[in-house]
Amino acid sequence: MKKRTVKHVLFGTVQYGLMLFYAVFLVLPVFFSFMSSIRPSEEIFKYASPFSLSTFIPRQISLESFRSLFVDYEFMKPLVNTVVVCAVTVVLGLALNALAGFAFAKFRFRGKHVLFLMVILTMMIPFEAIAIPLYSLCHQLNMLNTKSALILPAVANGTYIFLFKNAFEEIPDSLAESARIDGASWLAVFTKIYIPLTKPIMVSAGLLIFFYQWQSFVWPLIAANAPEVRVVQVALSVFQQENGTLWGEIFAASVVTTVLPLMFFFPLQKYYKMGISTSGMKE
Length: 283
Fold this sequence. Notes:
The protein is 70% helix and 1% strand. By secondary structure, the protein is mostly helical. The protein has 2 domains: 4-60; 66-277, MetI-like fold (Orthogonal Bundle). α1 crosses α13 and α3 (76-106) crosses α10 (199-215).
């Protein structure tokens, strides 16, 4: 019994030690970025070697990098552009993907399984395979260097349709049948019964759409690189210039673009976990 207790304590110590190491490994770069954003640019790598406490703790606090970021480089414009693109994509994406998932889950129509198989297949196609045809299509529609070029291609997604379909299939059909007998339209059934019962799924899908758009770089770089529609990920590349890299501004921008999404995620993480792990309702 004593051996078992010692073994259990030893295993727990090793386990928590590895978890602590992993947490430090993840947090340390973020901490370094934050501290580098509030120190003078000339001191960012001054104490990098030899490794010491001054590597992470600034000897002098300066907000010059943030001032330069928002005043000299007008970072607020790409920040607003990104928020607008993300918000519109989330609203349109939730509406379209939820309706598609509802149709696949609750309606019978010819070609349903073939069509859903095509939706699943889109999840396996890498973006690089469709980037050139998508660019050509946006060019023909005169959508290049507009917010529409960033929003519309990201609205429909097989992953979110699959997520909604599974969630709606787990809701008993008897609820819809009862509402239909009482005279409710299918739209009323969808909005007043199915949507309220799948709020965690809605939050999960919304967060996934938001983060996908927020971190998107390749497509915005290709389709909307004009200064007036530039998003944050593309704007970050501006600080890597021909004569050098503006590390202070890069770290300041990195802090801003990291903190803002977390402000949305932390209040909703409970619903996100529920949406990912929920098993739904059973008949």
